[in-house]
Amino acid sequence: MKPKRRRQLELGFSSQGSLQRPGAARERRSPERFDLGYARLRQLYELGKLLGASEAPAPPEVLRCLGRTVPLRVAMLVDIRAGAAHAVAARAHGVPEDELELAAGHARRCLSRLAGVTELAAGRLRIEPEPLPLAARLGAPGRCPFAALPLLLDRRTVCGALYVRGARALGEADLAFLCAAADQISLALDRHAAWQREVRLRERAEALDRAQKDLVAVVSHDLRNPLGAVLLGISTLRRWPDMEPSKVRDHLEAIHRAAERASKLVHDLLDVAKLDAGHLQLELAPVDLGALVSEAAELMRPLLAERSLACETSIDEAVPPVLADRERVLQVLSNLIGNARKFARPDSVVSLSVWQEEGEARCCVADEGPGIAPHDLPRIFDRYFQGPHGPAAHGFGLGLSIARGIVEAHGGRIWVTSEPGRGSRFFFALPLA
Ligand SMILES: Nc1ncnc2c1ncn2[C@@H]1O[C@H](COP(=O)(O)OP(=O)(O)OP(=O)(O)O)[C@@H](O)[C@H]1O
Ligand SMILES: [Mg+2]
């Protein structure tokens, strides 16, 4: 048989690239070739079903499915995540572990070439317990022919590779089959990515819906009380115009406090809405965090003194500036110090400190209050969360969630440590400018 003709048969096409008359095919094709082509078509069909039915974008069964018609020593699905190549591998019976690891290293290098990146770190290698179906024939380790086929997202972006090592040299028909399989896996990856996008959108829509319901509940519940107090105070003053001046002052004080409370809630709700929509505008500039914390301490000292609380500061002046929005960081400090004021035991000390650690500027607001129960710690920064002392303190459960939103919008972190009965320590860290 002429070499050209043999290649055409291996690829399973007629000389014109079209389907042949059944009789002609019988004349020219060997029955084994025909059977192999038919088996591979079936295999592709099975593969499609497997990929369609599985929740994972490319389940490991795919590897065994490929090994049914191509004799493989090793088959691997490698994907890129966070700059590393993670692989799921299957091997034929008798293939030693070191050959598999060699193959994993080779697959990673192939994938970095396909993806056009200089180097990919070695990620996790998961080895499937079930062997590939065809026995490993021939071929000493390290001398096997191999194929590395890109897996594409949106037909463009290389996100992984299908890597195989044959138990014999891979022919063009094998490669055509493996290419078709890689295309099917790429399509499954596309489908999975689209599905994940849809789930994210639905979750976001549900979260917005929940937030809207919460907002209505808060406005109707928490805003009604202070506004009611304002209206009551004003109508009392109007009804008794000759009231004693000291009583008038008391009523005006009460109206002022209630109006302040309503105004704080409206401001907090607006901040929450901005954080939700990702519209919090930050006016970033280099800020001396130590100086800002001293300023916050001076601002809050009179309010702390009202509850007989002392304020101590410990500030490392060598901390380099952070890139931050001054007013927003002041808001975080005022929320944290405000909480310490509300919850700390009277006659105790509220301590503020600033220092540098691991390339960040860090700040701690510590109090000697009742502390936070361990089961409340994971929820403490959640919106509307109030612990057992919260409702008594007339808050809305928004301060810490806003503080977290602001710190995270700066690329920073906020966290808390506490032991019940021994006070709380709220920390936040901001990246240096
Ligand atoms: N320093 C603290 N000590 C003990 N518990 C605290 C402290 N800070 C916060 N908490 C608990 O965390 C809850 C949530 O705090 P957050 O600041 O978000 O809300 P709030 O202070 O209750 O109301 P808001 O800040 O909206 O006026 C509080 O209700 C309280 O139970
Ligand atoms: Mg608060």
Task: Walk me through what this model shows.
This protein has 433 residues and is α+β, with helices and mostly antiparallel strands. The protein has helices spanning 3-11, 22-28, 31-53, 61-66, 97-115, 172-239, 245-277, 289-306, 326-343, 399-409, and strands at residues 72-81, 84-91, 121-127, 146-153, 157-166, 285-287, 310-315, 322-324, 349-357, 360-366, 413-418, 424-431. A hairpin with a 3-residue loop joins strand 4 and strand 5 (157-166). The radius of gyration is 34 Å and the shape is elongated. The termini are far apart. The model is unreliable at 1-27 (pLDDT under 50). Residues 268, 335, 339-340, 343, 367, 369-370, 372, 380, 385-387, 389-390, 393, 395-401, 424 line the site of adenosine-5'-triphosphate.
Order of helices and strands: HHHHEEHEEEHHEHEEHEEHEE
Bound molecules: adenosine-5'-triphosphate, magnesium ion
Uncertain runs are 1-27
Main sheet: strands, sense, barrel = 5 strands, mixed
Structural class given helices, strands, pairing?
alpha+beta
Can you count the helices?
A: 10
Characteristic key phrases:
433 residues, five-stranded mixed beta sheet, binds adenosine-5'-triphosphate
Please specify the SSE layout and strand pairing.
Elements: H1 3-11, H2 22-28, H3 31-53, H4 61-66, E1 72-81, E2 84-91, H5 97-115, E3 121-127, E4 146-153, E5 157-166, H6 172-239, H7 245-277, E6 285-287, H8 289-306, E7 310-315, E8 322-324, H9 326-343, E9 349-357, E10 360-366, H10 399-409, E11 413-418, E12 424-431
Parallel strand pairs: 2-3, 7-9
Antiparallel strand pairs: 1-2, 1-5, 4-5, 6-8, 9-10, 10-12, 11-12
Helix pairs in contact: 1-6, 3-6, 6-7, 7-10, 8-9, 9-10
The structure holds adenosine-5'-triphosphate and magnesium ion.
Adenosine-5'-triphosphate binds at residues 268, 335, 339-340, 343, 367, 369-370, 372, 380, 385-387, 389-390, 393, 395-401, 424.
